[in-house]
Amino acid sequence: MIEYLMAHDLGTTGNKATLYRKDGTLVGSEFSEYKTYYPGYNMVEQDGNQWWNSVEQSTKLLMKKTGINPNDLVSMSFSGQMMGAVAVDKNGDLLRRSIIWADQRSIPQTKKLEEYGMQRVYKIAGTRVSPTFSGEKIAWMKENEPDIYNKTYKFLNAKDYIVMKLTGTFRTDYSDASMTNIFDVNDLCWSKEICDVLDIDVEKLPEIVESTFFTGKIIPEIAEKLGLSKNTMIFQGGGDGACASTGAGINSAGEIYAYLGSSSWLSTTSDKPYFDEKMRTFNFCHTVKGLFCPTGTMQAGGASYNWIKNTLCGLEEVNAKNMGISVFSIMDDMIDKIQPCSDNLLFLPYIMGERSPHWNPNAKGSFIGLKASHNKSHMLRAVLEGVTFNLKIILDILENISDFQRIRVIGGGAKGRNWQHILADIFNKEITIPQFLDEATSMGAAIIAGVGAGIITYEEGSKFIKDVKFIKPNPWNHKKYMELYKTFNNAYNALEGVFEELSN
After folding, report:
1. Residue 381: exposure state from Cβ atoms within 10 A (0-12, 13-18, ≥19)
2. Per-residue confidence (pLDDT) for residue 255, from 0 to 100
3. pTM of the prediction?
4. How far apart are CA 386 and CA 388, in angstroms?
5. For residue range 122-153, what is the model confidence (pLDDT) as tens digits?
6. Which domain does 130 fall in, by range?
7. DSSP per residue over 230-248, as a string?
């Protein structure tokens, strides 16, 4: 009998259901979209019922298309968007739409924590104070929607709501809990101190368990509805950031990976939280018990490159469509003509403000050093270099934890051949590219399902990730880049006051 593992990855645009054999072989996947709602300024919500419909639909399609015997599906686990607030009553019924990670309505509640002490909260929660976190959103709900708050039995996150629908249990895991801003990363429990500042009732928060916790077998009626065996085991799973670490094979202390998506980040593993003296990075719990993920996330990594594509490369998009190729391939050909450092053209990638390392929502994107001799190709390369310079600042911070020799790169941006070499040359590290670039979070959830069921170990799961490309840094390019890197940092510092003026 071949044993199978199913993973659900509840992202921002939809749910991706993926089926793997227990040796990590990808068997099939199905994606099902859901809507995002914007009911007011800084407000972003989704409907948990649509999450559930998406899980139901994608599960049925995946089982039908792959044709596997339901009895061969051993277990299921989940990755999900973090930092949300899903209010449910004792029956598990939704009391309102979920307030998701991108929502920033809770600025007044955030100010309470800032006044209490940014450093104090950082030392407890391992994260900076921000309206993006769950705790501040729950506090907003108590102040602005008291009827809903009072009826709420538990506040869950996305994947926890799906686990509740499947098993009838109300739990979360350590990784999701650690990105609420009301969790103590030192004692691994809800922080009564921070909850008291926000006036949140701790009893409304769910029990916290390991990602590999066996939360129960699937409810028989639900199993029949989804076309699954009633013996399918359900494991709690993790937040998408933690699952990405697991699915990138970064499951022991001292390893690091880079994710190049719309937002981009560097994340490492350690056996204790890392508290940066300037609070430029943050911490969350890994899916592996006892490990943490010190991380720095920038707002607009791939989003910066996508912005310049949409702004300047309309003709290239038409040509790419006519040729049946990706426009990014044409953009790579254009960048091939430009030497490293883009003839001293700098790009500050702060088109959406910035999280790590500056934590400045008023920061702005900028081209600096623009000359008449520069053309579109220079600007394309400068964008990739600017994003990588910003990631280099984060790397320098994380190297206080460990001296990294190689960095695995995942995400859609890792497909860019020029970006691969720019990363190697600026970081001065060997860059490795795995076989599957977009499967890390679902792979992580599948590994959790296998480890929880006892049919694989985390060490075996790490071997599922196979590197197929290795890029060594060019010493001469690195030397040139480091001269420009100093100017890149000086440029932000010089313009910080200008950014404030423009915002006002």
Report:
1. buried
2. 93
3. 0.92
4. 5
5. 999 999 999 989 999 999 999 999 999 999 99
6. 4-236
7. TT-EEE--EEHHHHHHHHT
